[in-house]
Write a structure and sequence with these properties.
Distance between the termini of chain A: 30 Å
Largest interface: A-B, 29 and 39 residues
Mean pLDDT of chain B: 82
Low-confidence stretches of chain B: 19-71, 409-498
Largest sheet of chain A: 12 strands, antiparallel, barrel
Structural class of chain B: mainly beta
Number of strands of chain A: 13
Helix content of chain A: 10-25%
Largest sheet of chain B: 7 strands, mixed
Strand content of chain B: 25-35%
Number of strands of chain B: 35
Radius of gyration of chain A: 18 Å
Order of helices and strands of chain A: HEEEEEEEEEEEEHE
Shape of chain A: globular
Structural class of chain A: mainly beta
Mean pLDDT of chain A: 90
Radius of gyration of chain B: 25 Å
Oligomer: heterodimer
Distance between the termini of chain B: 56 Å
Amino acid sequence: MKFTLKKLSLCILSTSLLSVPVIAHEGDDPILAKVMIDQLEWHDSEDANHQSIDTYVLEGQAWIGKDLNKLWLKTDVEYVDGETEEAEIQALYSRAIAPFWDFQIGLRQDLKPEPTREWGVIGIEGLAPYFFEVDAALFVGESGTTAARISAEYEWMFTQKLVLSPEISLNFYGQNDSEYQTGSGLSDVNLGLRLRYEIRREFAPYLGVHWTKSYGNTANFVREHGEETSDAQAVAGVRVWF
Amino acid sequence: MKHPITRTAGLTTPELSDTQPSLTPLSVTQQSRRRFVLGASSMLALSGLPFSGQLMAHGAGQVASKISATAIDPPVLRGNEFDLSIGFQTVNFTGKKRTATTVNQSLPAPILRWKEGERVKLRVTNTLDHESSIHWHGIILPSEMDGVPGMSFDGIQPGETFVYEFDVNQSGTYWYHSHSGFQEQTGLMGAIVIEPKDPDPVAYDRDMVVLLSDWSDTAPEKIYRTLKKQSHYYNFRERTVGDLVRDLKTKGLSATWNDRAMWNQMRMSDTDIADVTGYAYTYLMNGVTPDQGWLGLCKPGEKVRLRIINGAAMSIFDVRIPGLKMTVVAADGQNIQPVTVDEFRIGVAETYDVIVEPQANSAYTLFAQSIDRTGYARGTLTTDINLRAEIPAMDPAPTLGHRDMGMDMSGHDMEHTDHSGHDMGGMDHFGHDMSAMKEMDHSDHNMEGMDHSGMDHSKHNMDEMDHSGHDMSTMDGMDHSGHNMAEMDHSSHDMHGKSRLAKAGFGSNFDPLAKIHHADTEFGPHVDGHSEAPQSGLNDPGVGLRDHMKLYGRRVLTYADIRGLHPTHDKREPSREIELHLTGNMSRYMWSINGLNFADAKPLELSYGERVRIILVNDTMMTHPIHLHGMWSDLETGDPNYIPRKHTILVQPGSRISYLVTADAKGRWAYHCHLLYHMLGMMREVRVV
């Protein structure tokens, strides 16, 4: 399954790249593709001994499809001190269900941390009133394990190009899992605040801060490991889409 | 009004031909072109402007002639037989070389001069590497000559020549353009001028074609893709934190909150006026950039007829000539009763003929600002080649208001036929909680016992109604029970009218209490809004033009001002009404009619010979120019005896408008929004059988 998903993702990604210049003249609804690298950033972080280490994060999505039906890929990779600590990829079928909302269903693969895990995904993504971009998903793992994630983002435009974007994301788990150091209930909250400058709409470097905190049993696991339950980091990166 | 005029270096004004019968193509006659070209080039050199609008022919030997032909005006072709060749051509409007689609190596395409009553034959050769076509916009002709691939014919394949041949039974200003792909955006459009058979009712000494267009260095396919990926990509007027702070200071917290709440809940932007803006576009006048400026020369004392054509792909323009009154004498090629204005809006594909009388030794700027004020096309009208007029500043960028959403909750603006304040159902945009307003009960209207059920309300003259007593200032808990309907002038009610349809010519004066019905197909992820109380689009000059009399002393043309010069051609009453809703989802960039895009919709069938009324309701926030091929759209502007005929009807956001159509042309016809990137979805086939 791992292999298939990888292959599938690779296949979709290459198709999307190839299909960018493709447009059908025959109709109003051609097959299009969009790649969004929302965060490609460096974190100014420290290890448990307060030694400075480099952390790189990639958070991106891509879709291919028509107006109302699309295939989505979402990925989240964290590379800490020369090692991939977290790597997750989702492949989802997305169907528009309301003017501003898409229903999404598919698979998620966690390549890191190991051992790898697979999840089924069901969620919604869209624009809530007051222009909050929302992504909410429920994950069901192999032996009935469950997890949920909700994230929301907002954009404050200082000028037409300078945009301050607060972001929040919450992770929940249905059970304790010592192997992955996640506890049941609210596991962690991530807050981000990024100030980007859109040199073009498609290309915007940014500076920001990222704050994360563990809660409940997850926090206990983290403490047992001798790590901090909360962490604030300065970030610098670029946001790109095409 | 003061109009500073600048004098350039001493150049000789080229000889202009004597004017009667005044078919001077544009500013310069054939015999003086050569001399003029020298003048223009040296003038440009002196002024130091980049000579950017020029076309570059593929063959080096042709360069000089091509520059001269296109830097000034497109060539003029006359007669009955025409050879037109569609091809690629390198152009440079912005400092970057791009490939345009042109006719006979000219952008715009050559001006075609026909004569009413004659038969024309046009051999159109496609030298592109993909299909092409030419549609003769506004020309009444057999459907197989209409030039719409997939409906009238199979298109013109690469290397093929298609021969169009038809009788010309009309006169006036029209235009032609490709109906394939997005070729129109890359330059394939030109003017058609048809000389009338009978003496022209319009007196003028010289006429000039003024063809407006929008050029982009970005390929149109890419623009379309970009809009689908990020619909607000080209809007750089989005609300900022600074705007919010300013509003908080001037209006206070609660007013600011209330003001923004609707837009925030609807997830729409009130600055979304044009889908594609000056960020991507260079606006052209007769193929000339605003930097360079088109030049129209006339002799002192001449009456000049400007044949203004909007050949843009996506841009609606507001046209004025500071210092000159314009007398509008024709709309969409058809003569109208002259109306003198200072400014008018020209929708994509519309044409207006105006008469102006420039003073000797003066210069005027012909100024066409885009509807969203992100750019303009401009030219100079003068009797002296050395003179230039000041270029006016663009008006402030407009923002959309409640009335543009098919609602009017202010209740204060009772001008025009703005009576939608009655209907507090307002507009139901998704997620917009209007529940409080829906609870309002109109049943208490004191109608003084009158039974209106059988009445024909269509002839209400809403301008005469006195609503001054309404206190609409507080919307919460509004009580309509105090309406004194006796104040209304009911004298024009047709109490004996048997027909449930409004009388021909009056169909646009809608009953403000009438509920709009939205079909099931209009609901779903593909439609983001519905007008619940659309107002008549007739008296409204449109977003960004309201109050121009008050603000600037400019009289702005509205559709209500337009009356046909000739008596109504078909005096029959409509036998039925067809209500169509212009629908879409802005953020997904999907466009449709009644929620159905062209691909999913059945053709609209009309019976040969019938007279029908089409009512268009605009459920979107955009202004849509709607074009019916093959038959006239008789716009109901209030006088049944002089109904003007148009081919393209501008439908204001959140409004409705009606027109009559006599189905006198058998065949398959296209019927669509003329905004190029809306057209693929917002289109119907009309079948007359």
